[in-house]
Amino acid sequence: MDDLRDKYISLISGAKDEAALEDLRVQAVGKKGEVSLKMRELGKMTPEERQEAGPKLNALKDEINSALAAKKAALADAALDERLKTEWLDVTLPGRPRRNGTIHPVSQVTEEVTAIFADMGFSVAEGPQVESDWHNFDALNIPGHHPARAEMDTFYMYRAEGDERPPHVLRTHTSPVQIRSMELQGAPLRVICPGRVYRADFDQTHTPMFHQVEGLAVDTDISMANLKWCLEEFVKAFFEVDAVELRFRASHFPFTEPSAEVDIRCSWEGGTLKIGEGDDWMEILGSGMVHPKVLQAGNIDPDRWQGFAFGIGIDRLAMLKYGIPDLRAFFDSDLRWLRHYGFASLDVPTLHGGLSR
Ligand code: DAH
Predict the structure, then answer these.
(1) What is the rounded average pLDDT for all residues in the chain?
(2) The whole model's pTM is what?
(3) Nearest C-alpha to atom 12 of ligand 1 is from which residue?
(4) Cα distances (angstroms) measured from residue 292 to each of 85, 158, 180, 299
């Protein structure tokens, strides 16, 4: 019995795989295995011999069975280790930080302007970039013969031969959104309308597509004083200087009466622009009291309501605030330019958190 035990324990511990183990199992404890045959011999023994040999044989059988089970588990573990070595995956590789994008200065400034006017109760309104010539011109008191139409270098959309209707235009300013907002919302009203506008013009300070933001406030008791306060607050917040000085210069726009262009005090000393000091003035926007005919075009009764309006160039604001010299580069999609002048994507401008960081 001791010989049998030594033989099988050492064979089992040296088995190479599961198939070899199974052969050993059959050989030792299978129906015709050596241990099983020995158990059959118990019948021929005397009762005394049987009492001694029986328990020993049973113990041997148990011992071989558990050695088989332990070896089977060890073989499975080794197989798994082998597999894990080939299926190894390194999850510790670092990310690639240069791949992040930036926010374009036009988007940044639009967000800044929106944050400032939202704080004064203005909501954002939008209109189409392909605009009816009525919304872009007539409704704004610019009739067909008006020189402003020619001055604006308008892009006209195609109309089929023989179609007598006036062609649509690429909107030349954001002012048509004034009309659309009045039509949609009626009075009282406080909106800003940022967006793209188009004119056939191209040099260092002009691109055929650029951005404006329009402002419109309509109520029963609105005056130039309200306009002036709003614009002063805006300029202070936007340029982040308290000592701003604005100059309202009489001007003319068909859609406002009276009209004013607004200049800001600045200095160009040493080639850099400083807002709020020096002896120069720089024009930054057009504004005025909404013309009664324009209110009427927006279905608002001019005998009951008044309003002020203004229009500002967004790209120009970005150039001034962030010292960007050439407007054309804004729209070149040059990655180096975008990295240099772009803003981090999570720095959303707010009045409490700071507009630009
Ligand atoms: N629409 C004008 C332009 O594009 C800008 C402007 C001037 C808008 C005066 C206004 C305004 O609302 O009152 O040149």
Answers:
(1) 91
(2) 0.72
(3) 310
(4) 82, 32, 16, 11
